[in-house]
Amino acid sequence: MSNVKMEIDGRTVEAAEGTTVLQAAKSIGIKIPTMCDDDRLEPYGGCRMCMVEIETSAGRKRLVASCVYPVEEGLRVQTTTEKIRRIRRMIIELLWPSWQPYAKEYGVTSSRFTTGLTDCSLCGLCLRYCSEVKKSNKIYFKGRGIERRPELIEGAELSCRACGECFSLCGSGWIASRC
Question: What is the set of domains in the chain, with CATH numbers?
């Protein structure tokens, strides 16, 4: 596997092909906020908190989720533009009050949206951990859009409580409150 050279926030970084932009940024000490990322799990890109602005070597600019976007030769990445800060503020508002770790950093004190969802950020960490690491598949998403909710399979409460490994991944405490 060969390495590619790219730029993140004006700093040159060399990373192996197959590395994500988020991993490359971490390797040189650049912090990109995430909600659904965990090194033990496959990249998911569900929360979009890790959104960055890229410019390809061909000059094309766009926004991408850094946790799933692979590094490319000559790629230029900006991690903290005003456009990105606006997107992150909106994500925090949309998930309010279930996920507030970045609220102070982004100046969010409340939400202008009414989502009806107050106890789960839909990050999928508990589902993915249960599926990918534990190979148990005891949690799943039910519904679509604003009706989407995590659910435990019937009878899973006791075995989930006994395991409890995903509890610490849940920023909102949803899974621990159900078991």
Answer: 3-94 (3.10.20.740), 125-178 (no CATH)
